[in-house]
Design a protein that fits this description.
By secondary structure, the chain is mostly beta strands. It is built from three helices and 23 strands. It folds into two domains: 9-59, no CATH class; 68-276, Immunoglobulin-like (Sandwich), CATH 2.60.40. Helices cover 13% and strands 43% of the residues. The strands form seven sheets. Strands 11-17-16-13-14 form a five-stranded mixed sheet, with no helix packed on it. Strands 4, 19, 22 and 23 form a four-stranded mixed sheet that branches. A four-stranded antiparallel sheet has the order 18-7-20-21, with no helix packed on it. Mean pLDDT is 86; it is low at 1-25 and 42-59.
Length: 279
């Protein structure tokens, strides 16, 4: 003879106008309600996801601001291995009377010496060092493109989105991994601007213009201040780095990223050039 299964109940509190009622229901019935009720399943998924995110945040080492009196400098030039691939000009599909019929592609912006512009170079997983920047970063809608195309920022900074164009733009930043909208800013006329705080957590932000589908930009947001964007000559400089060995990462929108180990000595400058393969 099988042993008799013990009955299991769940305590339920039901809210209603003027008070609440406490009762119990069989566990089997509660499980059935969960299975057939999509709202309960969705709520459970959200709670589990949130718990995982909180656990990951708790495990991450927070960045600590310390005095850096003997910091070193990392500098170098980012170049492509070989020639940049030929990319057709951007075909303008709207406001051709102002934007023109086409715009040269800025994906691989190579200078005279072969240096690659718009590469974000940063230290990965650095846990302590100088204070984070606080100034507002700019993003300008300029002749039907974003300027700058790529830039870095730290948590806590703000971004000023503005337009130098006499046409309607709609700046739409999103989380690059989830496509979640951060905000959506309409810029109806030249000189209009809006300032917004950057997200509270580090992430790669991709930006598009809903009115002009070819317009794109990226903001790398970090929890530390050790990053730089290459200029027209492909050069970058990262200053006041505490002595130690770090992972230096170079990211480019089409070529992807490359990591290199770099050792910084107190008060010294280390030169670390980087080569990226075009894709």
């Amino acid at each position: 003879m099988r042993p008799k299964k013990a009955a299991t109940s769940i305590l339920v509190i039901e809210e209603f106008a003027g008070g609440s009622d406490v009762s119990t229901i069989p566990a089997e019935r509660h499980a059935m309600q969960f299975l057939v009720n999509p709202s309960l399943r969705m709520l459970n998924a959200v709670l589990v996801s949130s718990s995982l995110l909180l656990a990951q945040a708790a495990l991450a080492d927070p960045y600590t601001v310390v005095a850096v009196s003997n910091g070193g400098t990392i500098e170098g030039v980012v170049k492509l291995t070989g020639e940049a691939p030929g990319i057709a000009p951007i075909k303008v599909t709207k406001n051709q009377d102002y934007c023109g019929a086409s715009i040269p592609s800025p994906v691989y912006a190579v200078g005279k010496n072969g240096g690659l512009q718009y590469v974000e170079v940063y230290l990965k997983d650095i846990s302590k060092g100088k204070a984070l920047p606080t100034e507002t970063i700019p993003l300008v809608n300029e002749h039907c493109m974003f300027n700058p195309r790529v830039q870095g920022a730290s948590v806590g900074q703000q971004i000023k989105v503005s337009s130098d164009d006499p046409i309607l733009h709609n700046t739409h930043p999103q989380n690059s991994e989830t496509n979640a909208t951060l905000y959506n800013i309409a810029l109806p006329f030249k000189g209009f601007s809006v300032t917004k705080p950057l997200p509270a957590t580090p992430q790669l932000i991709k930006i598009k213009c809903d009115a002009h589908e070819w317009m794109h930009a990226w903001v790398w947001e970090f929890d530390h201040p050790y990053f730089a964007t290459t200029g027209e000559d492909g050069h970058f400089t990262i200053k006041d780095v505490p002595p130690g060995t770090y992972t230096l990462v170079a990211w480019q929108e089409a070529a992807g990223e490359k990591s290199i180990s770099v050792t910084v000595a107190a008060g010294k400058t280390v030169t670390q050039d980087i080569q990226l393969a075009a894709k």
